[in-house]
Amino acid sequence: MEQNNNSSENTELIEVNESTEGNVKSAPPSKENQPKAKSFWRDLFETILMALILFVIINTLTSRVKVFNISMQPTLKQGYLLLVNKMAYKLGEPKYGDIVVFHYNGDDQEDYIKRVIGLPGDKVDISGGVVRVNGNALTEPYIMEVPNYSGSWTVPAGELFVLGDNRNHSSDSHQWGFVQESWVVGKALFIYYPFDVIGSLSVDGLVRAAPAQ
To answer: CA-based, 20 to 30 A from 161: which of 4, 168, 175, 192?
Structure first.
């Protein structure tokens, strides 16, 4: 009789355990995880939206360009990547020595990069390997070599006289004339690649010698 009672008790214990285990498995998922999932997707959406907004702002204010030719050597070599400030001349005026990106002949499919030498109203003279602006000889440590050509130009209103630093291997204002200010995309600020030449392209005005006597 004692054996039968033990057997009955054991059977009941097993049935209770199975029933309890079954209840645990069939319990609905916790609602605590639902707010966490919603928070994750909301954070992800906000991050993507912020990235898109920043991209639009950065793309509106700046441009990234790659140098493809040799006309600005030794300052800029082929393959250099530059950051260009597209707002520079919407908020200010071009200055001597600025390196500018512009649409050649107004064609937005063909961009050139050169250095500003003459501003509206200036008289630019090139002779004997020396560039003079309004009679003042320029000191230009950044050029590849002195120009082997000569000429004289008066810069019209609303236009710029530009030259490449590689003076004798540059298609620029000494060949085809002036650049309308409306064609200018922006001012090149600095080189950001290659990493070993990262640096600013800013020039605080060209150094001038005393006026020629």
So the answer is: 192
